[in-house]
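note to self — DONT lose this again. spent like an hour looking for the file last time. sequence + predicted structure for the chain T wanted, 345 res
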Amino acid sequence: MTKPRPISLALQGGGAHGAFTWGVLDRLLEETGLEFKAITATSAGAMNAVALASGLHENGLEGARAALEDFWHEVSRRGAPLQAIAPAPLQSSFEAFNPFTAFTPFNFATALTSFASPYDLNPFDYNPLRDALDSSINFEAVRQAPVDLHIAATNVESGRVRIFQGDEVTLEATLASACLPQTFKAVEIDEQVYWDGGYLGNPALFPLIYSQAPGDVLLVLLNPLVRRGTPRSAAAIQDRLNEISFNSALMGELRAISFVRKLLDENWLADRVKRKYRRLNIHAIHGGEALRELSLESKYDTRWSFLKQLRDLGRSHAESWCLTCLDSVGRDSTIDIEDEFLRLE
């Protein structure tokens, strides 16, 4: 029997679009020739990561698939994260809102968060994501799983990225990784406060470089790199700013990885120095390009039919990747970093 090839996963955040990643993982878990040894993840990616790890510990590959479905079903059932934008005290107001006005409940909620903070709008810190995680994920199983997790969050005070790993991967750490400051109060852990990890690592790749993680890294991307046209509405402008800022840290790390590969490939390093560097094989599934035409509101759409549609789309993209790239795992990269991520205009 052929020994499974180890691989690391790097999972982006993207709200409800994280169901695309669910589909990718669901398909990859059918490949007995792959073994997930490390996952670095942010926001919705972090939630997919803990669901996978929990199920993997409890019942192997099929347990991981079941745990992912259970988590997303809970997200849909509880309406997270849409209800977080419109907390319970405001729900009745939105339901009574005149349907003939130009303001949908989503637009009204977005407008509110543009001039009032969650400390004003959500004083009791209602967070349906907490309920979805708490009811569907066994975090003790997560910490015992045979996969190393690296969950990114942004330290509000220092402005630095914090990577939660090992016993640090808790419910609070996962919520911190997904804490959009316009929507949720900052998450406090050990007297430090955190916001969404996407600002400094979406996802962060350096934990894979400085650990014993496999040298093959599969990126599952949800944010489009390119979006033609100038956004006009306030919501569209903010969304594009978020896409750019949430991609910037990843682009910087990929630039460094590309530079190191060039140093190694062209033999520019002395032997005594070369041993300090790792040559990573980079692979990617570009969900962002497939999701680009979806509206901003769809990132908050938790209807079960929509989440399953994204899951099926993710499975389809993962199927294509398996057919064209799987055999290269352990041998070489299947993307050109310079061409796909760093090419100048």
